[in-house]
Amino acid sequence: MNPILTAAALIAAWNIVVFALYAIDKRRAQKGARRISEKTLLICTFLLGAPGAALGMAVARHKTRHLKFRILVPLALVLQLGLLGWVMRLILTPTQKGFSQWMTGSNQSFY
Question: Are the C-beta atoms of 49 and 18 separated by less than 8 Å?
Fold first, then answer.
């Protein structure tokens, strides 16, 4: 399978998990049950889970009043979009022969 598609699928699956974490924490808050720590939620957000976190905050209306989350989740999203742009630039730039060969698994010389 193409490594780019594999990475995209893994990141998408991770964002579903992060979205679920926010929804689960909201439900636990409503029930007065043991919560998922803010530290855990933010770590998951910064580990490529910002889209899921932002969607989880919006859909579940969870952590929307906490300044920490209102600043850090959008910041993580911007950083991750920048990272995505940088990686896409590396992949799509034809002068990056070494990187392209590495991505396709070619064992030939870079030049």
Answer: yes
